[in-house]
Amino acid sequence: xxxxxxxxxxxxxxxxxxxxxxxxxxxxxxxxxxxxxxxxxxxxxxxxxxxxxxxxxxxxxx
Length: 62
Description:
By secondary structure, the chain is mainly alpha-helical. It is built from 3 helices and no strands.
């Protein structure tokens, strides 16, 4: 796990989701890739529905 993303470091949720966005751009993921992964893994249609914990797990995956 990337320690600077960890909730144990009291990272602000907005920072976590900003890092997710940066990684998605870096990986050049399309919306369909994101939607499929989120549905399969978290049973959620979009990143806006993720909890902070789920956001951290998604970031670790990326």
